[in-house]
Amino acid sequence: MSRVSGRAHRAARRRVKPTTPLWAACGAAALVLTLGVSGTLSTWTTAIIGNTNNTVATATAVVLSETDGSATCTSADGAQATVNSSSCTTINKYGGTAIPLVPGSTQTADVTFKNIGGANASSFQLSPGSCAQTPTAGSGTPAAANLCSIGDLTVAVSCSPGSSYNSGTAWSDLAYPAAAPPSTNKSHVAASGDLNAGSSWTCRFKVALASTAGVTDQGITVTQPLTWTLNGA
User: Could you give the angle at the alpha carbon of 53 between the alpha carbons of 50 and 59, nearest 5°?
Assistant: First the structure.
């Protein structure tokens, strides 16, 4: 190497030295980026709260069941479950038509109700619908009597706490003495928790044809819808 070329080489090497601070700056920037990603600096720039305990509950409801020992219906049966109201056609409180009444005879039917919901109830109501008969009063020969009103056909209703009827503990507020099929609503107000969740009560129906019933009472079928309502506390 000549003397001139040696000086040129040393000068070139001196011009390369200023690049060292640039590399240092790049390294610092990379460190800052790494710390930001790893979270060390993010704890200074981001505040986070995670809520893991978020719950809610729905209240309990009253749900009514009815049974005559062979059939059972509930207010939440079938498609009506969402409205807690159903129609029961398998329990006949008036005894049915298999054994027709003759003068002086009586048919008795017991039905047991239960609050199968989770809420206590404050009252229990019976709402009789319109009484109807076939054939209609005044039709046929002899002209059919009106068994819905004349009093030859009587209906008595009495209820008591428990899964079987006990006349000794019968409610006084929901009771119909023997008379023509009822037309007014009657309610029992809860007492001593007898309508609480899980409680049962039994209603007895006595349907009778007077011993003095005339021949105009013969061959008549009487029907009457009944609606039971259990009201929450």
Answer: 145
Nearest-angstrom CA–CA distance, 53 and 217: 70
Q: For the sheet with 64-67, list strands across it.
A: 72-74, 64-67, 106-115, 200-209, 153-161, 175-179
Q: What's the token pair of residue 29? A: 């920037």
Q: Quick one: DSSP state of residue 97?
A: S
Tens-level pLDDT at each residue, the chain (233 residues): 455 455 555 555 555 454 555 555 555 555 555 555 555 688 889 999 999 999 999 999 999 999 999 999 999 997 767 899 999 999 999 999 999 999 999 999 999 999 999 999 999 999 999 999 999 999 999 999 999 999 999 999 999 999 999 999 999 999 999 999 999 999 999 999 999 999 999 999 999 999 999 999 999 999 999 999 999 98
| Tokens 């309610």, residue located | 187
Beta carbons of 209 and 152 less than 8 angstroms apart? yes
The two tokens of residue 227 are 């609606």
Contact 112, 228 (CB under 8 A): no
Cα distance between residue 145 and residue 108, in whole Å: 23
pTM: 0.80
Q: What are phi and psi of 110, to 5 degrees?
A: -110, 135
How many other C-beta atoms lie within 10 A of the C-beta of residue 82? Answer: 7
